[in-house]
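Now for a specimen:

…
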Amino acid sequence: MLNLKYIPIRSFNENIAYVHTDCEAYKTDDIRAMTRVEIHGGAVTLNAFLQVTDDLSLVQPDELGLNAEAFDMLGLPEGSRVTLVLAEAPQSMKAVKRKMQGNILTAGEYKSIIGDILQRKYSNIDIAAFLSSFSAFSTAPEIVSFVQALLFDKNLFWDEEDIVADCYTLGDIPGNNTDLLVTWGTMATLEMLGTENGADGTRYGGMPALFMVVSQPVESGLVSSLSAQGRNITGVMHLPDLYEQLQSARRILPFKRLGVIYNPAETNARAAVSGLKKYADVMRFELIVRPVPAGADGAPDEMSVPALVAELSEMKSDLIYLPPDAFMNAHRKALIDAATYFSIPVFSASEAAVRRDNALFAFVHRYYTVGRFAGKKAVSILKDKVQAYDIPIESPARALPVVNMTAARATGVYPPLSLLQNAELVNIPEKGN
């Protein structure tokens, strides 16, 4: 056993335990940094991450030091006798890894993750990994499950006297002081604001709303037009007009057959395919469409993506378009890897597929630019008191081609110099490789 010592260090919601290199009770030679441990001796078992130090001013060989947050949680006085044991990673980390791979999690898995976070079983790095993967791809039911998990053990409280349950109540969370509702992404925006003609279109009340990264607000039913939109909503679209995207693609590759794989369950994806069909006649190219089939559980079958790419190859597709489709973006690596195998370049609606997964190019408005533009609209609403419905829904003024030079070398498709001069080049191969 070791003597408990208070360490006056705060670590932003991580429980940190410190033992000396020459610890009397435990061998530290094989202990790696940030090893998970359980500390016993108090009324509750404390989860923490172990750090080994040779600083005698911090802990003695017979002491176990706890940072401020951990010491308060354990609730024992200094000098108390405690023990520690190595702990396994929480079972919910398996769900986090599945999410990082682009899978859809259940409500039970979200509850398990949030519960383990609340018990300090996750490091800050673990939490960041979970939140990053969740924000990259999450379905509307997942967002609801995540919010419900946050209510675990009544973690959200309001003074009953301050609760106002009226038209400004969002999802049963009092929002009487909300000046502006901001949303990101099509699914989250539709989940929160509903469609203009739907029964859920008024549940957020009359407060102004500002969205970002909704590619097709009219086609999705959010608003009926981009100006004089009727609803007290404005926003910033992140995609250039589809015709501009196709014209940009033609400058890089004069394609005759364009392939697209999409999830037919998604509004954005259906709208994009509908637009492609319209422009196929105007721009005189053949469009080859392959919807992702549903699996036995009714969800889109990600395992079918490589086979669908093979079909596009058999149909002599010159180029594959990766549309604004949450499912396909979550599984874009499978699509891009298969397309590279067949030497078919991929033209993406999003810059992330170009920067991270070797799609050849995208013609986009950068997220940073979208955020700055949305910020200006927010200032108009909050400071200048302009109504959201009087502010047109727009895209930033100038789109930017983003070209992946490693993908260009892999597919043998190099954009013309006239385009490269105004493009952002990423993943440039090093000399000699």
In short: The mean pLDDT is 84. The CA atoms of residues 1 and 128 lie 34 Å apart. The first helix runs from residue 68 to 74. The two ends are 56 Å apart (CA to CA).
